[in-house]
Amino acid sequence: MKKQKNNKNILSSYLIIDNFTINIFQMKFCNHLTDITLIFFSVGSAVYSIISWVTINNITSIGFIMVSIFSSTSFILLRKIRYYNDFENSINILKEENNKLKKNNEELQENIYTLLNIAITCDNLH
Hints:
The protein has one domain. The protein is rod-shaped. By secondary structure, the protein is mainly α. It is built from three helices and no strands.
């Protein structure tokens, strides 16, 4: 019984921490910081690989070239993922607005039919 209670406490603590970190990592500041860091590593590693090719040895410079390639690839993929995520959010918002407009259109159609019935009955009375 006690072990099961500890598991629930650990799980709830994990969920709280998970929700907190998700909110932090979705902030624009964190996104910009990640972008700047990846650009720094990409450019810095490329420059240092050229320097180390001349001064140290080829194997070290190949390692820095690989770091530069991985950093730039990560940067490009993160940017694409963010773009697709923003695009998907925009589509979801447009779908919600479209559904609201459909409901409003249906209500307006009902009001038109009601007004037409009232107009017909008024014409029949005169």
